[in-house]
Amino acid sequence: MKAAEDQVVDEDTSFQDDETFFQDIDLLQKHGINVADIKKMKLVGICTVKGIQMTTRKALCNIKGLSEAKVEKIKEAAGKMLNVGFQTAFEYSAKRKQVFHITTGSQEFDKLLGGGVESMAITEAFGEFRTGKTQLSHTFCVTAQLPGEDGYSGGKVIFIDTENTFRPDRLKDIADRFNVDHGAVLDNVLYARAYTSEHQMELLDFVAAKFHEEGGVFKLLIIDSIMALFRVDFSGRGELAERQQKLAQMLSRLQKISEEYNVAVFVTNQMTADPGAGMTFQADPKKPIGGHILAHASTTRISLRKGRAEMRIAKIFDSPDMPENEATFAICAGGVSDAKE
C-alpha cells in the first residue's frame, strides 16, 4: 500500500519551471506599488503580474480603493516586468514545451486527443445524459494525480459541481483500478458545489487564489457542467444577451487562469433539441448549448454519444491541431477505459 501512496502526488510536487512560470504580484512593491493596493487586487483573484496584464483598466478601476491614477501606475509597473510585445514562433514553441497532457484512462481516447486533455486550454465534452461526461470527470480526478508521460508529475484537482453529481465513492472505485490509496486520492481533490451562475463566477476567484497559493501543485480544474446554472438563472430570449455576456466573462476568466497557472481546464456541457434542424435535413437535430460564445471559447470540443451497452463514442468536434476523428471507449467500474473487443 505504501508504494501505491507514493504514486499519488505529494504536497511539494512541482512541474518543470513552475516557480518561474508566473511572477507573484508582491514583486510590484519594488516598483513603488503599496501593499494595501496589492492586497485589494488579491481579494478579487488577481495574484500574478500576468493577471494584471489580463485585466482591463476598467475592471481594475472597479476595485474599491483603486483610482485611475493608481491603475495607470500598476499597469505601467506590470508592463516593465513582462514582455508585452511580440515573440517569435520559435520562442513561443519553447514556452509550449511546458504544456502537459492528462490521460483519460483510455488509450484510444488519448490518441484522439493527442495524449489526453492538455494544459493552458479549455477542453469541453458535450453529449446527452448517460454519455459519460460525469464519469469522464471522475476519472480525471484520479488520473490527474498519477505521474504520466513526458515528465508529468501528477497534481491536485479542483472540482466545481453545478448538478450535484460528484460522488467521492466513485473516486474510490477508480483509485482501486490504478492501485492508489483512497485517502490520498480524496485528499488531493478540492470540491465545491455551485448554486447560482454568480456563485460559480465567485468560485473562480477562489480557484485563482488557490492556484497561486500552491503554485505548481494543482494541475486540473473541472466544471461539471458549465451551462447548467446559466440555463436556470436566465430564461427566455429577453435575458439571452445578458446570459451570453456573463458566460463570455466566465470563459474568458477560465482561459486566463489556465494560461496564467499552466493548468488544464475540463468542462462538460449539455445538449438541446434544435427545432429548426428538421428544415435543413440535419442528421442529428441536437446541438450543445451555450451558442457561439462557448464554441469559440473552448480550445477543443469533444462530442460524446452512446454506443452498445457500456460503450461510448467520442468525436473531435473542433480542435486547433487535432483532425476530426472518432474513438470508442467503455465506462466500467474503474471509470473510463478502453473498449474490449
Give me the secondary-structure topology.
Elements: H1 2-7, H2 18-21, H3 35-43, H4 49-53, H5 57-61, H6 68-81, H7 89-96, E1 101-102, H8 107-113, E2 117-118, E3 121-127, H9 133-143, E4 156-161, H10 168-177, H11 182-187, E5 189-193, H12 197-213, E6 218-224, H13 228-233, H14 240-261, E7 264-269, E8 271-273, E9 286-288, H15 291-297, E10 300-306, E11 311-318, E12 326-332, E13 335-338
Parallel strand pairs: 3-7, 3-10, 4-5, 4-6, 6-7
Antiparallel strand pairs: 1-2, 8-9, 10-11, 11-12, 12-13
Helix pairs in contact: 9-10, 12-14, 14-15
Architecture overview:
The protein is an alpha/beta fold and 341 residues long. Helix content is 40%, strand content 20%. The protein has 15 helices and 13 strands. The chain has helices at 2-7, 18-21, 35-43, 49-53, 57-61, 68-81, 89-96, 107-113, 133-143, 168-177, 182-187, 197-213, 228-233, 240-261, 291-297, and strands at 101-102, 117-118, 121-127, 156-161, 189-193, 218-224, 264-269, 271-273, 286-288, 300-306, 311-318, 326-332, 335-338. The strands form 3 sheets. The protein has a 9-stranded mixed beta sheet with strand order 5-4-6-7-3-10-11-12-13, sandwiched between helices. The longest helix is centred in the C-terminal third of the chain and has 22 residues, at 240-261. The two termini are 32 Å apart.
